[in-house]
């Protein structure tokens, strides 16, 4: 093409109206369908060959994703209030076991089928940490004093290094403990009910030892896709209260939930969840909704509200309509942690059925 600054450009353009350079008229090369199919087949074979040789999980990512979706579909059916046939429930439970149950679901998640259980949610948190400058040791004198670079002999400017202490983070439900592995300035302690790596400690959140000194406490507790997997509705509220015990003053709690837990639940919405957080001793600092998840970064309140106001939050309908889910967080301060409740969605459905039956009596 002619340069637009050239005085002859206009004349050249007029001299060849409607014509294109030869290289633009050259036909594009076409690959045969069989060649394309062969390439895809070869790529698929390579992916399968490089996949982990673990008989408990599918070999490639596409099959891993299909497994996770099948698992979620079964859980949704089990949680449906319309499921009253014992035989149908038995078949669904058998199908879940045939797929491998929670263990296989977690392993598929670790190997990439479900990004939200790996590093995707950690990226949002790390972004907030940097923007909020959490962990930066900046005192008032440094804030008021203008920062100047050091100029070397060759004229190069060298800016003083930003001092950042290593953040301590407790990652609950970490599975393989890889979410924060790429951030050397974060010291992560990972726990999970069914660990998928040697460095992940096998603990229930309520049984993990509470720090006894300030040095042992954490800057952040991460509950990424954990509360929604807790089968006890009361324990979900206990998690919000129990997290205080692990944090430094002004420490942060990071919560990730499936978006429908707030947008399509009969009993929970963004506003109600925000009120529950406020009541359990948290100030909302940042929140964000993606296509599938909702992210919340909250900070411990100071003073008398540090551990909440003691209010009880029961199941109360905030929206009606067909097709809603039953996700709810019940808060009962001062009560004991419940044990032995395994299935979160089934617990939601069964309590909804029980309360509906009680209302009809």
From TrEMBL:
Main enzyme class: transferase
Supply the CDD domains for this chain.
AdoMet_MTases (cd02440)
Q: Name any one Pfam family assigned in the record.
A: Bmt2
Q: Which SUPFAM superfamilies match?
A: S-adenosyl-L-methionine-dependent methyltransferases
Q: Which InterPro entries match?
A: Bmt2/SAMTOR, SAM-dependent_MTases_sf
Q: Where is the composition biased (Low complexity)?
A: 34-51
Q: What GO cellular component entries does it have?
A: nucleolus
Region annotation Disordered: residue ranges?
A: 1-64, 340-361
A Gene Ontology molecular function term for this protein is: rRNA (adenine) methyltransferase activity
Any idea which positions bind S-adenosyl-L-methionine? 173, 192
EC numbers on record:
2.1.1.-
**What compartments host this protein?**
Nucleus, Nucleolus
What are the protein's UniProt keywords? Methyltransferase, Nucleus, S-adenosyl-L-methionine, Transferase
Q: What does this protein do?
A: S-adenosyl-L-methionine-dependent methyltransferase that specifically methylates the N(1) position of an adenine present in helix 65 in 25S rRNA.
State the similarity comment: Belongs to the BMT2 family.
Write down the HAMAP family for this protein, in alphabetical order.
Answer: BMT2 (MF_03044)
- Its name, as the record gives it, is 25S rRNA adenine-N(1) methyltransferase
Q: Which organism is it from?
A: Rhodotorula toruloides (Yeast)
Q: What is the lineage of its organism?
A: Eukaryota, Fungi, Dikarya, Basidiomycota, Pucciniomycotina
